[in-house]
Amino acid sequence: MAVAKVREPIERTLILAEHPRAEAHNVYVGGRVATVLRFEKPCDPERTKMLGWEGRFEPLLCGGRSVVLYPLRDLTPEDRFMLLVTLTDGTEIPFTVTSHQQSYGDREIDQQVNVFADREGYDAVLSSLYRALKSERELREENERYRKEEGSVDHAYATLLANGALKKTPFRPKKTIVLKDGGMVMTINLFSGKGKAAVVVQITNKNFDEPWRFGEARLSSERTSPTDRPFALRMNHAEIVPGASGTLAVVVDQSAFASQQGLVDLTLKIFRKDGLQQVSVSLDHRLVRE
């Protein structure tokens, strides 16, 4: 079963010695998400500037060894803001603040960029070690998840629902909700099943500027503990290009609704790749049939 977990920040290490000194290093930002640049030495606020930020960013924050960027809205790959960070020892480090090209795989936002002068420095080695350990842990977790999903009935049902094969599942339609959020249209279908409930969300991307990318889903009860509940999830397209649609299916076993007080209602939340919440829907425990 998939279980929601605490989101870890997207952290990247930049080694200046690996790039030409005159090169402006790209920093990828997203609307209403803070990006922090961390340096080995303190920054000089008086000589740290970004050109053309007015109306697109909150005022630049520079203190200690950190510089904080906060875009007021999403950027396009054509938006390029020149940032010059000057350290107290006079070192000048240029950056280009922009958004990932749409053709790149997952559009990741730099939530923290650790900037080091040389790979051999202690902090750089430590940062690289932590990054490698994190990748190893994520790979182990992913392999374990795939192993468990191979024999999961609920994941099999979710796969069928995501592919439109409702008649091959034991679920009955109960309710349909249509939501609109900017250029996104979400059609939410709730299903009742014997000992289970299901949700199928069809997402249509009418925003012609960029694709929609799935981040994660969380299922929780706000009234009981533990708040996070297990579920099975399948999506036929993790990325939905402009003008296209994708389907996400979630199957919830009766045990996920259980509490010491009996069955409780749950809330399913779906987040985009950039961390922003796209959908929130309540699952009535009465969707589960005896």
Radius of gyration from the alpha-carbon trace, in angstroms: 23 Å
Q: What fraction of residues sit in β-strands?
A: 35-45%
In total, the number of strands is 22
Global outline: elongated
Residue-averaged pLDDT, rounded? 84
Task: Give me the strand/helix succession.
Answer: EEEEEEEEEEHHEEEEEEEHEEEEE
SSE-based structural type: mainly beta
For the biggest sheet, the summary is: 7 strands, mixed
Question: Please, how many helices?
Answer: 3
End-to-end gap: 22 Å
Domain unit count: 2
Low-confidence blocks of residues? 1-7, 102-107
What proportion of the residues is helical, as a percent range?
10-25%
Summarize the structure in words.
This protein has helices at 122-150, 153-162, 254-257, and strands at residues 2-3, 11-15, 25-28, 35-38, 49-50, 61-63, 66-69, 81-86, 92-98, 112-116, 172-181, 184-194, 196-205, 212-220, 230-235, 239-240, 245-253, 258-259, 262-263, 266-272, 277-283, 288-289. It is mainly β. The chain folds into 2 domains: 2-141, no CATH class; 153-289, Immunoglobulins (Immunoglobulin-like, Sandwich). Strands 1, 11, 12, 13, 15, 17 and 22 form a 7-stranded mixed beta sheet that branches. A 5-stranded mixed beta sheet has the order 2-10-4-7-6, with helices on one face. The chain is elongated, with a radius of gyration of 23 Å.
